[in-house]
Design brief:
The chain is mainly beta. The chain has a single domain, classed as Sandwich (Jelly Rolls), CATH 2.60.120. It is built from 2 helices and 18 strands. It has a 16-stranded mixed β-sheet that branches. Strands 12-13 form a two-stranded antiparallel ribbon. Strand 14 and strand 15 form a beta hairpin. The longest helix has 9 residues. The protein is globular and about 50 Å long. It starts with a helix and ends with a strand. The structure holds 2-acetamido-2-deoxy-beta-D-glucopyranose (3 copies). The site of one 2-acetamido-2-deoxy-beta-D-glucopyranose has 4 residues, from strand 8. One of its GO terms (biological process) is proteolysis. Keywords: Hydrolase, Protease, Signal. InterPro entries: ConA-like_dom_sf (IPR013320), Peptidase_G1 (IPR000250), Peptidase_G1_sf (IPR038656). GO terms for molecular function: glutamic-type endopeptidase activity. It comes from Lentinula detonsa.
C-alpha cells in the first residue's frame, strides 16, 4: 500500500497525535480520554424484542446506532469495509458523537475493533470535527491533516491485511484527496476476528462516561458494504441498531440495500 504524501506526515507524528486540540475548552481537553467502545447492549432489551411494541427486529444499544453485520458467511472473515457519508451539522446543546465504520466490536467480536471515522462536537453552538482511527482497546489517534467541515462528503474504508495489521483510508469526495495509513494491533489480544462489520453513529466516551448525544438530524451511510475476500455483503444482510438511553430511543436506524440511515430521535 502506497502512503500518499498527504498522510506520510501523520505516520511520522503518530505518537503525538492524541495530544492536540485541547485549546478551546474543558470539553475538548477531555478528548484525550476519548474512546469508542464495542457494542453495549441496552438493558432495556432482553432480546431483540421491541421496546415500543413495534415489530422491529432491531438490536438495542446504549452507545451504537446504525447497521451491523453480525457474522460473515461460515468460514469467512470480514476483511474490507467501506461507506460514504456527509458530515452532519450539529445543533442545540453541547454534546459529541462519532461517525465511523469498522471491523469487529459487535456482539460476536467484542475484544477488538479496527475503525476510522469523524468525531463531531458542538460546544456553545459551534461545531468541531476530528478525523481519527482506533484499534480498540487502544484509544483513538487523531488524524490532524484531514481537516473536516460540516457537509463534507467523506468515504471511509477499513481493511484487514491480516489479523494484526490493517489499512485505514479517508477520502474527501469533493476533491478526491485521499490518504491511507497502515496500522497495527496494540497487542495480540486485539487481533481481529473478522466476525462483525458495522456503520455506526456512536455516543462516545470521555473520562469513563458517555457524553451527551447532540442533535445531529440524520446521518446516512451510502455504499455501505463489507467484503470477506469471497463475497461482498451489503449492510442490508445485517441488522439495524437503535440507540436507547434511559428507557427511550435517542437514535433509530433503517437499512435499505447498501444504505444505512440513522435519525436523531
Ligand atoms: C474537501 O474538499 C473541499 C473542497 O476543496 C474542502 O472545502 C473541504 O474542506 C475538504 N474536506 C476534507 C475533509 O478534506
Ligand atoms: C501482517 O502483515 C504485515 C504487513 O504485511 C506483516 O508485517 C506481518 O508480519 C503480518 N503478520 C502476520 C501475523 O502475518
Ligand atoms: C428501560 O430502562 C430504564 C432504566 O433502567 C427504565 O427506567 C425503563 O423503565 C426501561 N424501559 C422499558 C420499556 O423497559
Amino acid at each position: 500500500m502506497k502512503l500518499t504524501a498527504f498522510f506520510i506526515s501523520i505516520a511520522l507524528t503518530f505518537s503525538v497525535a492524541t495530544a492536540s486540540s485541547s485549546d478551546f475548552s474543558a470539553h475538548l481537553a477531555a478528548r484525550e480520554s476519548r474512546i469508542s467502545r464495542p457494542f453495549t447492549k441496552s438493558t432495556n432489551a432482553t432480546d431483540n424484542g421491541p421496546l415500543d411494541g413495534s415489530t422491529t427486529e432491531d438490536l438495542y444499544s446504549t452507545n451504537w446506532a446504525g447497521g451491523l453485520l453480525e457474522s460473515p458467511p461460515v468460514g469467512q472473515r470480514f476483511i474490507d469495509v467501506g461507506g460514504t457519508f456527509v458530515v452532519p451539522t450539529l445543533r442545540g446543546n453541547d454534546g459529541a458523537m462519532s461517525v465511523w465504520i469498522g471491523i469487529d466490536g459487535g456482539p460476536n467480536a467484542p475484544q477488538s475493533i479496527l475503525q476510522t471515522g469523524i468525531d463531531c462536537y458542538i460546544i456553545g453552538g459551534v461545531n468541531y470535527f476530528f478525523a481519527w482511527f482506533e484499534w480498540y482497546p487502544q484509544n483513538a489517534f487523531e488524524i490532524t491533516e484531514f481537516v473536516v467541515s460540516a457537509q463534507n462528503k467523506i468515504t471511509l474504508r477499513v481493511q484487514a491485511v491480516n489479523s494484526t495489521t490493517g489499512i485505514i483510508t479517508l477520502t474527501n469526495e469533493s476533491t478526491g484527496q485521499s490518504g491511507s495509513l497502515e496500522v497495527t494491533a496494540p497487542d495480540d489480544d486485539a487481533a481481529l476476528q473478522g466476525q462483525t462489520a458495522e456503520w455506526i453513529v456512536e455516543d462516545l466516551e470521555q473520562d469513563g462516561t458517555l457524553v451527551p448525544l447532540p442533535s445531529f438530524g440524520q446521518v446516512q451511510f451510502t455504499d455501505a458494504a463489507a467484503f470477506t475476500g469471497v463475497v461482498e455483503d451489503f449492510a442490508s444482510v445485517g441488522v439495524a441498531v437503535d440507540m436507547v438511553q434511559n428507557g427511550g430511543f435517542v437514535a433509530t436506524s433503517t437499512i435499505n440495500e447498501n444504505i444505512v440511515t440513522v435519525d436523531y430521535a
